[in-house]
Amino acid sequence: MILITGANGHFGKATIESLLKKGIDKNKLVGMVRSTEKGKDLVEQGVAIRIGDYNNYASLQEAFKGAHKLLLVSGTELEHRSKQQVDAVKAAKEAGVIHILYTSAKRRPDISNSPIQLVLNSHIDTENAIKESGMAYTLLRSNLYMDLLPWFLGEKVLENGIFFPAGDGKVGFTLRTDMAEAAANILMGNGHENKTYNISNPQSISFGEIAKLLSEISGKTINYHSSDSKTYIDTLTGAGVPQAYALMLAGFAEAAKQGEFVSGETDLMKLLGREPVAVKQFLANVYSKFTQS
Fold first, then answer.
1. What is the pLDDT confidence band of residue 291, given thresholds at 50, 70 and 90?
2. Residue 253 sits in which domain range?
3. Does the pLDDT at position 293 exceed 50?
4. Is residue 288 pLDDT above 80, yes or no?
5. Residues 71 and 157 both lie in one domain
6. Statement to judge: residues 83 and 219 lie in one domain
7. pLDDT digits (tens, 9 = 90+) for 218-276
């Protein structure tokens, strides 16, 4: 049996949809959600659900029973994520899980000076717990979601241009559904035990290049302005953006500026068996109503 955690979240749901498209036996697939209400859509698709919460160890032990393969989707509570996920790994081991997949993050070997060290620490803690558990594992070290680009660019990017302090740094933005399909292929395949895969679009792109693509798509001149981090944070908070969000965005921008998200070697095409979706195609889909006729 394959169990997917966070099954009603973006990544978990996309993985389940990919598994269903590939013809998985629904009797061998289970989605873990925090409540019956959150699992309604899955039940309507014929997918069984189990109730489990990263903050409730006993619920994880119960939810994981009978699962041979487990996709552990990283949580969103940064302050508590390390404990939550290490607990999930322990519960999986106790429940008899044989093979665990984990959605980790792309990073440099040394993160001591990383602007997003807080985000990465929990991934490292979880990876270490998985390796020490004795279970077979597959670590998916993923680049930034392409789906987050509109968040980085801002709601009024076509009116005001791109204001983001990433300099000329390039990012291997990768579509979430491509990542999920790669995970589904691993779950349904063999030979992925004790492997670490770099899940990244082979094409890395700068925000300046994104501005040029948006100009082509919209027929407008989209400029890119990279300020210093302080000016960026002050501008966002002055516009009513919560400081925590502004600081997080600035951290990702600085990491991009330092080259942390350049693709390098990637396993994505091998896992997909095809080319992943490119940023140009994604931007055209998102901003298609502004395309010149």
1. low
2. 143-175+200-263+273-293
3. no
4. no
5. no
6. no
7. 999 999 999 999 999 999 999 999 998 899 999 999 999 999 999 989 999 999 999 99
| Domain membership flag for residue 195 | no
Same domain assignment for residues 116 and 236: no
Q: Name residue 198's beta-bridge partners.
A: 141
Record the tokens describing residue 55, joined without a space. 């903050």
Q: Which token pair is 129?
A: 């717990």
pLDDT score for 77: 87
Cβ pair 72, 85 in contact under 8 A: yes
In this predicted structure, what is the pLDDT of residue 290?
59
CATH number at residue 279: 3.90.25.10
Tell me if 277 is assigned to some domain: yes
Residues 9 and 58 in one domain: yes
Length of the chain: 293
C-alpha pair distances (Å), 40 with each of 11, 31, 33, 36: 17, 11, 10, 7
**Cα-based distances in Å from 23 to 6, 26, 29, 63, 190:** 21, 8, 11, 24, 16
The H or E element containing residue 23 is none
Helix (H) or strand (E) holding 237: helix 229-238
Q: pTM for the complete prediction?
A: 0.94
Q: Is residue 268 situated within a structural domain?
A: no
- 220 burial via Cβ count (<10 Å: 0-12, 13-18, 19+): middle
Domain for residue 102, yes or no?
yes
